[in-house]
Amino acid sequence: MGEGHSLKDIARQAGVGLATVDRVIHGRSGVRASTKRRVVQAIEELSRQTLETSLQGSRLSIDLVMAAPDRFSSAVRNALEAQLPQLMPIAMRVRAHLGETTTDEEIAAILARIRKRGSNGILLKAPDHLAIRDEIDACARARIPVITLVTDLQECSRLAYVGLDNHAAGQTAAWLIAGWMPPPTCTGLSVLVVISSARFKGEEERELGFRDYLARYAPHLRIHFLGEGNGLDWQTLGLVEHALVNHPEIEAVYSIGGGNRAIATALNRCKRVPRIFIGHDLDRDNLSLLADRVLTAVLHHDLNADMLLACQLLIETNRLRPTRVEVRPSPAQIITPLNLPGFCALSSPGRAQKPE
User: What is the per-residue pLDDT for 47?
Assistant: First the structure.
């Protein structure tokens, strides 16, 4: 107690004598409870004032590294930059390294360059690959904290994971689809599940959650998995169209990894209207598809809250604020055209969603 503050400063702040402060700090008797509380409060006030003074002009340089389609990388970057004014007086400078088709080795090379140049922290969305995990460990040894976003990387020295509870999100999608599809007496129906790539741990967790729930509660629904479109429209379109042509029994779509505009185009070309079509994230494409009632629902998590949490973690790790933040995966929110968050707006008139 009182570390870093002189007895004179504490006494002046509390309005008591030096002897009283000395008794409180050393736990001696002879001080009234109300006086002791005043001394403790004075110490806390001095600590806050010292911290606020030290923060003036503090600057952090952080790196945002993402392997993702541009529509999602842009949404994350915008959400991150929107939080920066809230962090003042600490000024954070963001250096972005974004790529739609970046290879695992290229991501590891980007991390290596950041490590050699120096950084106050890295926010990373990347595939689960040994070279990337090794580079995260190297960053940790260089005292550069790495926070994984959206998709986690385990068995490495990352500081924390910030993002969606992916397994629960997959289960939520299965719950919705099981509720919308016909009862078990209607056999022969299937669900198309589209992932961007098996390289991403988060997508694997969503898939496992989805598969586990349907196996338990709707085993009559078959699943067709389709992947490696990388969430890019031009790669996803042909894959989905081929699946629809060869599997006329598909009656529902769960898009785990994006490329939903391409999926919608394939459905239209094949003249297919699924009973339910679920996607992830409120990016510009999904908002438009919700407006047109092509997407039934979007499983959304608040990117602004995620980015604020990630920034707070980096500030604490760089010892500019006391450690207070508790990190937990965020739950999925079920968004339809009828309950859009306040920052979104759709112009299409409302229609009944589930056919009678």
Answer: 74
Counting beta carbons within 10 angstroms of the beta carbon of residue 255, is it exposed (0 to 12), middle (13 to 18) or buried (19 or more)? buried
Instruction: Name the amino acid, one letter, at 194.
Output: V
| Strand-by-strand arrangement of the 146-149 sheet | 91-99, 59-67, 121-125, 146-149, 160-162
Residue span of the structural domain in which 35 resides? 7-55
The Cα–Cα gap between 251 and 278 comes to 12
Alpha-carbon dihedral sign for residues 120, 118, 77, 59: positive
The type of residue at 333 is Q
Q: Largest Cα–Cα distance of the chain, in whole Å?
A: 87
- Give the count of domains, the chain: 3
Residue 16 has pLDDT above 60, yes or no: yes
Q: Collect all residues with Cβ–Cβ distance below 8 Å to 266 and sequence separation of at least 6.
A: 236, 237, 240, 241, 244
Q: Which of 64, 100, 67 is nearest to 79 (CA)?
A: 64
Q: Could you tell me if 314 and 162 are in contact, meaning their C-beta atoms sit under 8 angstroms apart?
A: no
Residue type, 132: I
CATH code (residue 46): 1.10.260.40
Pair (292, 307) in one structural domain: no
pLDDT digits (tens, 9 = 90+) for 197-249: 888 899 999 999 999 999 999 999 999 999 887 878 888 999 999 999 999 99
Any idea what DSSP says for residue 206? H
How long, in residues, is the chain? Answer: 356
Residue 314 maps to a domain: yes
- Asked if residue 331 is part of any domain, the answer here is no
pLDDT beyond 60 at 354: no
Among 166-170, 173-177, 287-291, 294-298, the range scoring the smallest mean pLDDT is: 287-291
CATH code where residue 132 lies: 3.40.50.2300
Q: Could you give the CA distance from residue 264 to residue 287 in angstroms, rounded to a whole number?
A: 13
Q: Is residue 21 part of a domain?
A: yes
Q: What is the pLDDT of residue 344?
A: 62
